[in-house]
Design brief:
By secondary structure, the protein is an alpha/beta fold. Helix content is 36%, strand content 11%. Strand 15 (380-383), helix 14 and strand 16 form a beta-alpha-beta unit.
C-alpha cells in the first residue's frame, strides 16, 4: 500500500506544460496528461497559436521540439524541457529521471539514440557511452524495445544474432559512426557504418560518394526570396492559416518590397487572423532585412520575434511557428559582414541543390566573395567530402580546405573561426556532409552583444549570467520570446537612440529589487526604457542618478558570484569539468600571494586548516618555459620522463613542445631536429642538458646562464656561429624567408611537416609537390616590389628533394610548372634550408642544387 502511494505521488511536486506540435498531437497530449495526473502531477496542455501561459506556473515543459514561443525564456529560467519519453523513464525508475538525457534540443544531436554495446573493447565501450550520454543519448545494458543502435565490430556477436533472429528494428553499427559524429558535432547518416556489410570498409578510396537532398533548409536557402511561395498565393488551395491568429506584424521599410507585394502579404496575414501594424511597441513580430535601425533594436530588446521575409514565407507555407534563430538565413543580415571575411574568395564543392544555394548566400552574408569556379587566387574551398579534383587542386595550391561547419559557425558566432580546428577539416570516408547542412542555430547572446546591447548597462568586469536560486526569480530574468503579449508602454525613438556600450549583458544588471519581488513575467528591457513607471518619460538627471544607484547596488549584490566565477576561470580545464589532474605538467596553480589575498577577504578565524596546508604545498609560478630535445635519459623511459617533468614544474620550469611558446631550449649539442632549428629562428636562449640534470639533482632552479651550450665541432661542421645566429635571429624577426616559395616532395626523408614547421618559423611559404602541373602565385604581383627592396627578386621557386628515383621523376613536372609561370625552378637538397635556418642568413642555392647528371654519377 505504501509502495502504491509512493508511486501515485511520484509527480506530486511537478506541474508540466505539454506543448502540442505536428509530432505531438492533442490526443497524445491528453493521454500523457492523464498518466501524469494518475501519478500525482498537474498538467496544462498548450495548443498553438494560443497565448503561452506564464512560465512561473511550471516545473517542466514537455515537447518534441524546441520550436515553440517560450523556449528561449524557459532556457533562461532553467526550466527543464523534456520529450514525452521522460515520463515513461520516470515511471520505470520510480524516480524523476535526469531531464538532460531527454531534451529535444538539437544541440544534443544524439538525443534520439538509445545504444547498447556488443563485443567491443572495454575502453572503447566507456568512451562511446560517455560521448552518447554527453550528447543527449541513453545507454541500455541489455537489448530492449527502446534500443535504437547496437555498437559492435561484427554481426556474429550474441546481441547481433539476437537482433537479427527476432527482426528487431535496431541498427547494428560500427564504433566509427559515433567517432565521426562526435568529431563533427553533428549526427550523420549511419548507413555507411551499418553491419554486416559496412560501406566504409568495402568501398574503394576514389569511389564516388552519394549526395542526398537536405530537406531541412528548403525555404531557408536565401534571405531575399523573389516572390511569395506558390502554396500561399491562392488561399483556397490550403487550410486557413492559424499561425498569425491574434498577432500583430510589422513590416520594415528596409525590406524594399513594392506596394503590390506588401498588399498581398497584408491580405494573407489578415485572412489568418492577424494584423499589420506600423508601431513597433504594439508588434509581436518584426520583419526586416538588416540588423540595424530603431525598430530592429527596439523589438530585439523587447524579446519580440525578429525575422526576415524568408522566415515569414516559411511560417506561411507550413502554418507552423518556428524560431527565426533556428536557421541562419531566416534572420536579418548585417550590412557590413563579419570582420576578417572581406577579401576572402570562397568556392564550393560537392554540395548540390538547396544546400549549395544556401551556402552561396551564406558566403555573401559573411561579406566574402563566392566564386563559381576554383582558381589559384581563391583562399578557401568549402567541400562536403574530400574525394574530388577540386579538393586535390586546392590542397596542392595551399588553399584552406574546410567543411561547411566552419562557415556556419563563423556566421553564428559572428567571428572568423580558425581553420585549424579539427572539426572543420574532418571528412568521414563515405559521408556527404551536405546532409547536415543547416543544423547550426544563431546564438542570441552573440546577437545581443554585437547588434542590440542595452544602452543603460553599467560597464563592469565581464561576468557570467547569474543563476538565480528560485524558479520565480529565473523566470523574471527574461521575458519569453515568441507569441507573448508585448508591453503596452510605447517608447519614443529619442529614448532608444542613446549611444550603446558594446559587449554588455543587460539581464543581470538592469533590474531593480522591486521587479524581482513582483513574481510576474515581465520584460526587463521595459524597466530600462521607462523611468518610474511613466510612459514616454524623457530621462532626467534624477532618474539617471537613480538608475546608477540601482546598478551600483546590483553590482554589489552579484559581486560574490563574479568573484567565484573568475576564480574558477583561472582553473585550467574549464569551470564545469574540474580542471586538470594534479600531476599534469601544464597545470596552472595560483601563487601563495594570490591565495593569501583571497583568504584575507574572508574571516581568518574560519579558515580551513587543510586549505592552509594546501597553500604551503602550492607550486611556484612558472619562471621558465623550456623546450627539450635530445635528452637521452628520457629516451625509452616514459615513467622517468613524467617524474622529472613534474619535479621540474615544482621548481618553476614548465616543459613545452612548441618553439613559439618556449623561453629556453635545452640540447646536448647543436642538432638538426625541428625543435632545435625552429628555436633558433625565434632567438631563444640555448642551454646544455646539464642544466636539467643539475636542477633535478639539486632540486632547485639554477641560473641557466651557468649552463651555456658550447659545441665548436658542430659549428665548424655546419659553418656557422651560434652566437651570431642568435644576433641574426633577433634582427630577422622570423622574416628571413619572407617572399620565398618552397615546394617539398611528400616522400622527403624526415617528413613534409618537419620542413613546413621550419619554413613557417622563418616567414616563408611551403607546399607539398605531388607532380601536378599547377602553381599558386597569389603574391607574385603584389609582393614583387617589396621583395626587390629586401634583396630577393621573387623569381626563384625551390623544390626540396633527394636523389631517390621516386623523387627524381617529379623534377621534369616541377620545371614545367615553374617555367610556365615565368619563374626559375631550383631543385635543392634539404641542407640548403637547414643551413639557412641554422645560420639565420641566406645561402646561395648553387652549392645545393641537384640535377640528373649528379644522379647518374652517384649510380
Amino acid at each position: 500500500m505504501a509502495d502504491q502511494e509512493g508511486e501515485l505521488q511520484l509527480f506530486s511536486q511537478c506541474k508540466v506544460c505539454i506543448i502540442c506540435s505536428k509530432d505531438l498531437t492533442a490526443d497524445t497530449a491528453h493521454q500523457l496528461a492523464s498518466r501524469f495526473e494518475e501519478n500525482g502531477g498537474e498538467t496544462v496542455i498548450y495548443e498553438p497559436p494560443a497565448t503561452f501561459p506564464p512560465l512561473t506556473e511550471f516545473t517542466h515543459l514537455m515537447s518534441c521540439t524546441i520550436d515553440f514561443p517560450a523556449f528561449d525564456a524557459a532556457s533562461d529560467s532553467l526550466i527543464p524541457i523534456v520529450k514525452p519519453y521522460w515520463l515513461q523513464a520516470c515511471l520505470q525508475k520510480r524516480k524523476l529521471a535526469n531531464p538532460r538525457q531527454y531534451s529535444p534540443d538539437p544541440r544534443l544531436f544524439l538525443n534520439d539514440v538509445v545504444i547498447t554495446c556488443g563485443d567491443i573493447p572495454g575502453g572503447d565501450k566507456e568512451a562511446i557511452i560517455g560521448g552518447v550520454l554527453a550528447k543527449g543519448g541513453i545507454y541500455s545494458a541489455k537489448v530492449s524495445q527502446q534500443v535504437t543502435h547496437l555498437v559492435d565490430l561484427t554481426a556474429d556477436s550474441d546481441k547481433a544474432r539476437l537482433i537479427i533472429a527476432k527482426k528487431l528494428n535496431i541498427k547494428i553499427v560500427l564504433p566509427h559512426w559515433f567517432d565521426d559524429c562526435l568529431k563533427l558535432g553533428r549526427r550523420i547518416d549511419e548507413r555507411p557504418y551499418t553491419l554486416p556489410d559496412p560501406e566504409i570498409l568495402r568501398a574503394a578510396p576514389d569511389a564516388p560518394i552519394r549526395s542526398s537532398e537536405n530537406r531541412d533548409i528548403i525555404g531557408a536557402s536565401t534571405t531575399d526570396p523573389a516572390s511569395l511561395p506558390s502554396s500561399v498565393k491562392s488561399p483556397d488551395a490550403q487550410p486557413k492559416l492559424t499561425v498569425f491568429q491574434g498577432k500583430h506584424i510589422m513590416l520594415c521599410a528596409d525590406l524594399g518590397i513594392g506596394p503590390r507585394l506588401s498588399g498581398s502579404i497584408e491580405e494573407i496575414i489578415n485572412n489568418g487572423g492577424g494584423s499589420v501594424t506600423s508601431d513597433v511597441s504594439k508588434a509581436d513580430i518584426l520583419i526586416c532585412r538588416y540588423r540595424d535601425g530603431f525598430p530592429y533594436r527596439m523589438a530585439s530588446r523587447l524579446n519580440k520575434d525578429v525575422g526576415n521575409i524568408s522566415w515569414l514565407y516559411h511560417i506561411m507555407t507550413y502554418n507552423t511557428w518556428t524560431s527565426p534563430l533556428r536557421r541562419l538565413l531566416h534572420y536579418p543580415v548585417s550590412r557590413s559582414g563579419i570582420q576578417g571575411f572581406k577579401g576572402l574568395k570562397i568556392s564550393l564543392s560537392n554540395y548540390v541543390g538547396e544546400a549549395r544555394a544556401y551556402l552561396e548566400n551564406l558566403i555573401t552574408a559573411t561579406g566574402a566573395e563566392c566564386t563559381k569556379t576554383l582558381k589559384q587566387e581563391n583562399t578557401h574551398l568549402v567541400t562536403a567530402h574530400g574525394n574530388s579534383e577540386k579538393c586535390a587542386a586546392a590542397k596542392e595550391w595551399g588553399l584552406h580546405v574546410v567543411n561547411h561547419l566552419w562557415l556556419e559557425e563563423s556566421y553564428a558566432k559572428w567571428k572568423l573561426q580558425p581553420v585549424s580546428d579539427p572539426r572543420y577539416t574532418h571528412f568521414p570516408k563515405r559521408t556527404n556532409l551536405g546532409e547536415v547542412v543547416g543544423h547550426t542555430r544563431l546564438d542570441k547572446s552573440v546577437l545581443e552583444s554585437m547588434f542590440f546591447p542595452s544602452e543603460s548597462t553599467v560597464q563592469a568586469p565581464a561576468s557570467p549570467r547569474r543563476v538565480m536560486q528560485s524558479k520565480e526569480q529565473n523566470t523574471m530574468a527574461a521575458k519569453p520570446s515568441g507569441f507573448m503579449q508585448p508591453p503596452s508602454a510605447k517608447v519614443t525613438e529619442s529614448e532608444s537612440e542613446v549611444p550603446q556600450p558594446q559587449g554588455t549583458t543587460p539581464r543581470a544588471i538592469g533590474k531593480s529589487r522591486k521587479s524581482i519581488d513582483s513574481h510576474k513575467l515581465q520584460t526587463p528591457v521595459r524597466a530600462r526604457l521607462t523611468s518610474e513607471g511613466k510612459e514616454n518619460d524623457t530621462p532626467s538627471s534624477t532618474s539617471s542618478r537613480k538608475s546608477k544607484e540601482a546598478a551600483t547596488a546590483r553590482l554589489h549584490e552579484i559581486a560574490p558570484d563574479i568573484a567565484l566565477y573568475e576564480k574558477e576561470l583561472k582553473r585550467v580545464g574549464g569551470v564545469i569539468y574540474g580542471g586538470r589532474r594534479k600531476t599534469d605538467e601544464d597545470r596552472v596553480t595560483l601563487s601563495n600571494s594570490k591565495k593569501r589575498r583571497s583568504m584575507e577577504a574572508g574571516d581568518e578565524s574560519d579558515a580551513d586548516p587543510t586549505e592552509a596546508k594546501k597553500q604551503k604545498k602550492a607550486r611556484p609560478a612558472v619562471a621558465m618555459h623550456l623546450l627539450i630535445t635530445g635528452y637521452q635519459k628520457w629516451v625509452g623511459n616514459l615513467k622517468k620522463e613524467d617524474s622529472d617533468k613534474r619535479q621540474l614544474r615544482d621548481l618553476g620550469i614548465l616543459v613545452v613542445q612548441d618553439a613559439r611558446k618556449c623561453s629556453h631550449i635545452a640540447a646536448p649539442s647543436i642538432l638538426r631536429t625541428p625543435k632545435f632549428v625552429n628555436a633558433l629562428a625565434y632567438g631563444r636562449t640555448i642551454v646544455s642538458v646539464d642544466f636539467i640534470t643539475q636542477c633535478l639533482k639539486q632540486d632547485e632552479l639554477l641560473d641557466p646562464a651557468d649552463f651555456p651550450l658550447e659545441d665548436e665541432a658542430s659549428e665548424k661542421k655546419y659553418g656557422f656561429s651560434l652566437e651570431e645566429t642568435m644576433t641574426n635571429a633577433k634582427d630577422n624577426k622570423n622574416k628571413l624567408l619572407r617572399g620565398y616559395h618552397v615546394y617539398c616532395v611528400e616522400t622527403i626523408r624526415g617528413g613534409f611537416d618537419a620542413f613546413k614547421s621550419i619554413v613557417d618559423a622563418n616567414g616563408g611559404e611551403i607546399s607539398p609537390f605531388r607532380g601536378r602541373v599547377s602553381y599558386r602565385s597569389q603574391r607574385e604581383e603584389s609582393d614583387d616590389e617589396s621583395l626587390e627592396e629586401e634583396g630577393h627578386s621573387g623569381r626563384d621557386v625551390y623544390l626540396l628533394s633527394s636523389t631517390s628515383q621516386d623523387q627524381v621523376k617529379l623534377w621534369p613536372r616541377f620545371r614545367q610548372m615553374v617555367l610556365g609561370t615565368g619563374k626559375t625552378p631550383r631543385i635543392v637538397r634539404v641542407d640548403w634550408l637547414l643551413d639557412i635556418a641554422m645560420s639565420q642568413t641566406m645561402r646561395a642555392a648553387d652549392a645545393y642544387e641537384l640535377d640528373e647528371e649528379m644522379v647518374e654519377r652517384s649510380e
